[in-house]
Amino acid sequence: MIVGADRADGARLADQSVRRWAFLSVGVVAVLVVIAAAAGLREAAMPQVAVETVDPRTLHITGEFVEANLGSAVETDGTVTVRVIGQQYSFTPQCILVPAATPITFRATSADVIHGFLIGETNLNEMLVPGYVSVFHARFKAPGDHVMPCHEFCGVGHEGMWAKVRVIETKQFFDLARKRRRLDCAE
Ligand SMILES: [Cu+2]
Question: Disulfide: which of 35, 116, 143, 160 matches 151 by Cβ 3.0-4.6 Å?
Answer without folding.
Answer: 116
